[in-house]
Design goal:
Elements lengths: L9 H10 L18 H6 L1 E6 L2 H15 L8 E7 L12 H21 L2 E7 L6 H4 L5 E3 L3 H6 L7 E6 L4 E6 L4 H17 L2
Helix pairs in contact: 1-3
Length: 197
């Protein structure tokens, strides 16, 4: 079941390009799948595309307003997202391990961003499973509802990311173990630049 986002405003058409007509499915079942089984694998999704210059500028303006920051013209953006969802491997870990894994994710994201001329952000929803940990970490920003409702519109996996490059290319992925996906996207983008000077 696909839900086409047709709202008539220019901004929502940009969000449509990023969302790729995705479903908005909210978790009704209280059972959480914490295993990397077939159900979890099915919850992983990936979308990519390219925004034109006007769509890119409009999206950046909205991200800057939401994140309360200025995004440099030549920088890529990496948004790490955490939400409540029925598939969440990290829920099975205790608080100490979750804190260590979260710190490691921040470190890896920072390193990848530094190596790829990007800036990174960590967003979490008010009902995220690890909210108490995230709200104590300076790197995390509480979502006002903007990212949940307009950007990360599929709610089957508790984590994901979005990369937006200055040339308008974007890649959105739902899944917890995603840094290999981030690395592959940046590597692929670098190959394109070398082949098209």
């Amino acid at each position: 079941m696909k839900k086409n986002l047709k709202k008539g405003t220019y901004f929502l058409s940009i969000i449509f390009l990023i969302c790729c007509g995705t479903n908005k499915i909210v978790c009704q079942n209280k059972d959480i799948n914490t295993e990397p089984n077939s159900k979890y694998k099915e919850s992983r999704k990936a979308y990519s595309g390219t925004l034109n210059i006007h769509e890119y500028k409009e999206l950046i303006n909205n991200l800057e307003a939401e994140l309360k920051t200025t995004i440099p013209n030549n920088k890529s953006i990496l948004i790490n997202f955490n939400q409540k969802a029925p598939n969440c491997i990290s829920v099975r870990f205790n608080e100490k391990d979750t804190k260590q894994m979260t710190s490691k994710k921040i470190e890896i994201s920072s390193r990848m961003s530094s190596n790829n001329n990007a800036i990174d952000f960590f967003i979490y929803t008010k009902d995220s499973y690890n909210k108490k940990i995230y709200e104590k970490m300076n790197k995390f920003i509480l979502d006002s509802g903007f990212f949940y409702n307009n950007v990360f519109t599929e709610h089957q996996n508790c984590a994901g990311f979005l990369i937006i490059k200055p040339n308008g290319q974007f890649y959105k992925y739902y899944g917890e173990d995603y840094y290999s996906e981030v690395k592959a996207f940046f590597k692929k983008s670098k190959r394109r630049i070398k082949n098209n000077p």
